[in-house]
Amino acid sequence: MSDDCLFCKIINGVIPADIVDQNDTALAFRDINPQAATHILIIPKAHIASTRDLNDGNIHCLSEMAVMANKIADSEGISESGYRWVINTGNDGGQTVHHLHLHLLGGRQLQWPPG
């Protein structure tokens, strides 16, 4: 955990969040600035700054996040209509919180390219 990381503070209960799901490895909560009807962030409970920091020792976190995203898509009722996963990496990639996170977006027609 990182003391100054916003998402680590959510994991530790220092900052409240609308938690959707969690297990030993990952936590999912609703984005406070949603970009779609369904906008949920899924994060590893271990502090991994970005995709650049994935390795043999922590790659299982990404798998857990993916399984959780699909489970939440089912429970949110967006599986059949479709949804998008977004993981931003680095400043030019649009990453604003330097803790790996997967955006689960759905509930409306999403455009391409995204931005």
Protein described:
By secondary structure, the protein is an alpha+beta fold. It has a single domain (6-106), classed as 2-Layer Sandwich (HIT family, subunit A), CATH 3.30.428.10. The chain contains two helices and five strands, in the order H-E-E-E-H-E-E. It has helices at residues 6-11, 59-75, and strands at 19-22, 26-30, 38-44, 83-86, 102-106. Strands 1-2-3-5-4 form a five-stranded antiparallel sheet, covered by helices on one side. Strand 1 (19-22) and strand 2 form a beta hairpin. It is globular and about 35 Å long. The model has no long low-confidence stretch (mean pLDDT 96).
CATH topology: HIT family, subunit A
Q: Helix/strand-derived class?
A: alpha+beta
* Number of helical stretches of at least 4 residues: 2
Number of domains: 1
Low-confidence stretches: none
Helix share bin: 10-25%
Largest sheet geometry: 5 strands, antiparallel
Q: Briefly, what is this?
A:
With 115 residues, this protein is an alpha+beta fold. Helix content is 20%, strand content 22%. The chain has a single domain, classed as HIT family, subunit A (2-Layer Sandwich).
Topology (elements, then pairings):
Layout: H1 6-11, E1 19-22, E2 26-30, E3 38-44, H2 59-75, E4 83-86, E5 102-106
Antiparallel strand pairs: 1-2, 2-3, 3-5, 4-5
